[in-house]
TrEMBL record:
Keyword Oxidoreductase assigned: yes
Taxonomic path: Bacteria, Pseudomonadati, Pseudomonadota, Alphaproteobacteria, Rhodospirillales
Keyword list, A-Z: Oxidoreductase
Residue ranges occupied by any FAD dependent oxidoreductase domain in the UniProt entry: 18-409
Name assigned to this protein: FAD-binding oxidoreductase
The keyword Oxidoreductase is assigned to this record: yes
Species this protein is from: Thalassospira povalilytica
Length: 427
């Protein structure tokens, strides 16, 4: 199983049989993009398409979120956050030794110079989101009935916390994001059911949302199948090599699924497969919690981001979803739904008419890189292997753009942006 040096001047493969591992929003978009380039595409997943993190996320098309998670001052805040079990960042202490390398890189990414660079690189993708999504939405028959683009409302509990947020807001404005300040009266005019506790806020004008993330993934998946794509339930554990290149995926059931081109796009589970393919990567998971409740008599017309509480409230088809914050605990530990309850309690302070009756709690795994940038990359080891994971909070947002970029890399086409910042071996 010796590796050969990739020839970066040739396409991925002379053949057109592509396998995409992962049937979430990123994997399905990659599959669709490769179909359009003439590939025979099979998506593999050990579960039902769209049932992972793509099922229960906050539903935001968050094109304004080019600021990384680690910002200047993060190092000073981390100890206090970790001491609060229900704060914006918590950790399962038994997982800390495994998480420490990721945390050290996360803190290193919070320097001002790194934040400025990272935000530029995230904005390069985010500034393309609507341009890349709109044709995909139209071709799949998805439209305004499921996608909304009316902006998000960020609210602050004091003028001080708004001032404290100025660097991040200014950073995003400098990257081309449209953000405008609004007053208490304007907040209440827009969302009269909010608690009258917010003296100021901002409108993030290009933010969008979906009415049901699962319906988006399954709608795109249905379009993928209708266009001739294939799906196979498979839990991939390793690869079979020929002439130094991986040519088949081995599954737990003993099958060998052959391919000419491989794309690893299985979210938080990509780390193990990337290592198998010779590319170890500092990918870990941010465990995200939320509660979705029926509307009852609450009115909410757009996404609300309460900065002081580190929560987001999204009006959806099935109700209002309240989530946010980050738990670092890996893939194995059972959920701690007390976090969902704590987030919902904060949500009731923001939107007092919220009623938990009939609600459902959920936990998902956000696949996250310590510098908040995704991996959208050729393999440095194998010319027929590509990686597409690590989108953190922005998987739904970046789905169509990631699909387009991966298809360009696979076919050797000119990409619309420089792909160097997203390479898998950047650490």
């Amino acid at each position: 199983m010796t590796n050969t040096k990739p020839d970066t001047n040739t396409p991925a493969s002379d053949g057109k049989k592509a396998v995409v591992i992962g049937a979430g929003i990123v994997g399905v978009n990659v599959g669709l993009a490769l179909l359009k380039k003439g590939y025979d595409v099979t998506i593999l997943d050990r579960g039902e398409p769209g049932r992972g993190t793509s099922f229960g996320n906050a539903g935001g098309i968050a094109v304004s979120e080019c600021a990384p998670i680690a910002m200047p001052g993060t190092l000073l805040n981390v100890p206090g956050w970790l001491m609060d079990p229900y704060g914006p960042l918590s950790i399962r202490w038994t997982y800390l030794p495994k998480m420490m390398p990721w945390l050290l890189r996360f803190i290193a990414a919070s320097s001002k110079s790194r934040v400025e660079q990272i935000s530029t690189e995230l904005a390069a993708i985010l500034n393309r989101v609507w341009e890349d999504y709109e044709p995909v939405i139209a071709e799949a028959g998805l439209n305004d009935a499921v996608f909304k683009k009316e902006g998000a409302l960020g609210v602050y509990r004091s003028e001080k916390t708004r001032r404290d947020a100025e660097y991040g807001i200014d950073l995003r404005r400098r990257k081309g994001i449209k953000i405008r300040d609004i007053t208490r009266d304007e907040i209440m005019d827009l969302e009269p059911d909010l608690a009258p506790i917010f003296p100021c806020g901002v409108i993030e004008e290009d933010w969008g949302r979906v009415l049901d993330p699962f319906k988006i993934v399954t709608g795109l998946y249905k379009h993928f199948i209708e266009r001739g794509g294939k799906f196979q339930t498979a839990d991939v554990t390793d690869f079979v090599y020929r002439d130094g290149q991986p040519r088949a995926a081995m599954t737990t059931s003993g099958d060998q699924i052959t391919f000419d081109t491989l794309v690893v796009a299985c979210g938080a589970w990509s780390k193990t497969l990337a290592k198998r393919l010779g590319s170890p990567v500092p990918l870990d998971t941010e465990r995200g919690y939320n509660t979705t409740v029926p509307y009852h008599d609450v009115k909410l017309s757009r996404t609300i981001i309460s900065a002081d509480d580190s929560i987001i409230l999204t009006p959806m088809e099935m109700g209002i979803r309240v989530g946010g914050a980050v738990e670092l605990g890996g893939l194995i530990a059972p959920p701690n739904y007390d976090r969902a309850k704590a987030l919902f309690a904060k949500g009731k302070e923001v939107l007092p008419k919220l009623n938990a009756e009939g609600g459902t709690e959920w936990m998902g795994f956000r696949p996250s890189m310590p510098d908040s940038k995704p991996v959208i990359s050729k393999s440095p080891k194998h010319r027929n292997v590509f990686f597409s994971f690590g989108h953190g909070h922005l998987g739904l947002t970046m789905g169509a753009t990631t699909g387009r970029l991966i298809s360009d890399l696979v076919t050797g086409s000119q990409t619309p942006i420089d792909m160097t910042p997203y390479r898998i071996n950047r650490f």
